[in-house]
Amino acid sequence: MDISWADLDSDEQRTIAILGAGLSIELCDPLALLTLRRLGLIIGSSHLTAAGHNLRRAAVVKSIAG
What we know:
Elements: H1 10-20, H2 30-38, E1 42-43, E2 47-48, H3 50-65
Antiparallel strand pairs: 1-2
């Protein structure tokens, strides 16, 4: 399953950004965590998978590139 940043809602995007920055899981929306886990972007309670990291990195690069 290929997921793009645009496929995620704002809570899911925020959750990926929070976890990618190493911030507390307490700042994340619980429903977004469940959804991202089901999509295979989070493993365990608060760690991004390789796919999650790649999605975050692509969103950052795209925003910098304009």
